[in-house]
Amino acid sequence: MDDKIEMSKEFESMNLSLEEKVGQLFFPAAFINDSDKNIQLLEKQIQDFAIGGLTFFHSREMAATNYEKQIEIQNNDNSLLLSIR
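Now predict its structure.
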């Protein structure tokens, strides 16, 4: 429990604006061997929105396949879980 309190205090001491705090919730996809244009777009997102991190994928095709499998699992689970990406 003390670790959670420490993390909370550390996060609060960062003096982030509301926009920066919201930006920390996002982890856009980054692809190995992506185009320069897409890499520049990610760099701009990092600078403009203070995103929390990146999620790396081998390829766009693999990311799409993983997403489709996750949707299939959620649909078969008979639950009301909603995943926002």
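The chain has one domain: 17-76.
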